[in-house]
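Sanity check record (used in CI):
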Amino acid sequence: MTADGNSSREENARKRILCPLDPKHTVYEDRLAKHLKKCNSREKPKPDFFIQDINAGLKDETEIPDQLVPISSLSEEQLENLIKKLRKASEGLNCTLKDQIMSHPALHDALNDPKNGDSAAKHLKQQASILGNIENLKLLGPRRCFVEFGAGKGKLSHWVDIALKDAEKVHFILVEKVTTRFKVDGKHRKKNSVFERLQIDIQHLCLNKIPLLSKEKLPIVGIGKHLCGVATDLALRCLVETYAASCEERNEEPLAKRIKNDKTEKEINTLAKEGNEKNIPEKWTPVAGIVIALCCHHRCDWRHYVGKEYFRALGLGAVDFHYFQRMSSWATCGMRKTTLEASNSSTKRRDKQNDGSEEHDDGGCRITDDSPESLPGFLTVEEKKKIGHLCKLLIDQGRIKYLQQKGFSPALQYYTDPLVSLENVLLTALPNHSSSPETSA
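Expected output for tRNA:m(4)X modification enzyme TRM13:
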């Protein structure tokens, strides 16, 4: 027997076991201790900007029963009572939002690329409209930091960067809790813009602890495309409660304001002629604005929801929220079933290629026990769709009230055609002192 033969037999005799940190891979049992020290799934030291549950909101353990029956198990009377509650709570709300479908020249060539498939074209139209709305709110300018929540591949920040061209001191922070393939971050090599990607759940993100923000003191613009359910509430609290409130407590004067105060009259006149001075806020605020495309209300969570106070004022609680949240999926499920087959092949292909949250176009709805097909038959599909939209509107109205209480002027508007995306509502907010155009909720 050769030495090589003995070595091979010993290798085959060694036992492989599942890695205790991640059962998706195996390791030699006699090398386990060494492997655990370098396994990619080991718990890594938390960065300074990780603070457990800082944006989670207060936990109301007593308010939600452990076991709530699904909507499909409710009696007709119970369901009717829920719908009555919903309609009463929604009285006076404007159910028809303003159309604010826009575009931006930065995406002109991409939008007209003949190689675009149906899915790519739809995403580009949404990105163009979001970018157009950012510009319309006078948020597209130099000396600020764009924080993209649920960034996925980072395409929204990519287009903001393209639109800003050579604007001075523009920073991007891309927040995504999962590892994302096919990121576009690496394409940016401009000297005036800096990209930083943070792999963290928004629930634990403390913006004040990010070195870039603590050093530069740039005003923030919070952006997001299809920010799923609970992530929207976490992002809003992260911006206007955790970050803005703490900055104001410290009375920090940011770089943008210092630059303006230090400028000579000649410099200011020069900037005004170039059209850039309007983008330096007269009165600084830590958060210059918020532009978020909403998505997946059925994935909201009462604990994290920022509109609890609004719900309670209407005589509603955690159980009502739970059922309204589930019923919100009716707004998109009914229509998706008729269009699913046509887009099924492209959706499967897209799912194989993408992991980012930016691909959540139509709420990610599936036929479940809360979908129209499994509910009592006393409501038509059209009625269920209207009820679903009403649930979404009520949940969003809680977010509007929250932002108003925090000193912002918020608005809801349609930013794209429902044929492009069924999730077509954009939430925007500006600080009350802003001179930008006002829109109503």
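Confidence is low (pLDDT under 50) at residues 254-278, 335-359, 362-369, 436-441. If this sentence no longer matches the regenerated tokens, the check is flagged for review.
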